[in-house]
């Protein structure tokens, strides 16, 4: 049996992280999901940002431990923000990939209407 794969997608807001993550064959998790209410509306609350990131990490751990491949799309601007995920992968023997989205890539894909996945 193969170990689950964890993919971290990092980049600035609007760089295409979520769009890319949604094309991958993996459980998609991001801190922004914490702020989506039952009606599906996004309601960001700055005071709860730490809770959102804790929720994101705990969801990641839960799904990896169930054997699912997981993709996490957050800004991950600083290396320390990725550290808990890197340590989790190393300690558990999960495969890990890190992808970087750049705004120019997202703009190119949208301008030229190129699908990210066939």
Descriptive labels:
Putative nucleoside triphosphate hydrolase; 4 helices; Rossmann fold; hydrolase; alpha/beta; 118 residues
Structure commentary:
This protein has helices at about 15-20, 50-65, 80-90, 105-110; strands at about 5-10, 25-30, 70-75, 95-100. By secondary structure, it is of the alpha/beta class. The protein has one domain: Rossmann fold (3-Layer(aba) Sandwich). It has a four-stranded parallel β-sheet. The longest helix has 17 residues, at about 50-65. The radius of gyration is 15 Å and the shape is globular.
Summarize it.
The protein is an alpha/beta fold and 118 residues long. It is built from 4 helices and 4 strands; from the N terminus they run E-H-E-H-E-H-E-H.
Query: Which assembly state applies to the chains in this document?
Result: single chain
Biggest sheet record: 4 strands, parallel
Rounded radius of gyration (Å): 15 Å
CATH topology: Rossmann fold
* Order of helix and strand elements from N to C terminus: EHEHEHEH
- The CATH architecture can be named as 3-Layer(aba) Sandwich
Count of strand segments: 4
Percent of residues in helices comes to 25-40%
The H-level CATH homologous superfamily, spelled out, is: P-loop containing nucleotide triphosphate hydrolases
How many domains make up the coordinates?
1
Distance between the termini: 28 Å
């Amino acid at each position: 049996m193969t170990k689950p794969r964890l993919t971290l997608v990092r980049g600035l807001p609007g760089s295409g992280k979520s769009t890319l993550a949604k094309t991958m064959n993996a459980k998609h998790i991001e801190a922004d999901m914490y702020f989506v209410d039952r009606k599906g509306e996004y309601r960001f609350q700055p005071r709860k940002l730490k809770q959102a990131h804790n929720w994101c990490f705990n969801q990641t751990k839960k799904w990896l431990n169930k054997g699912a491949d997981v993709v996490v799309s957050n800004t991950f601007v600083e290396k320390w923000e990725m550290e808990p995920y890197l340590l989790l992968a190393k300690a558990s023997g999960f495969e890990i990939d890190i992808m970087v989205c750049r705004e120019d890539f997202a703009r190119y894909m949208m301008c030229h209407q190129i699908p990210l996945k066939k």
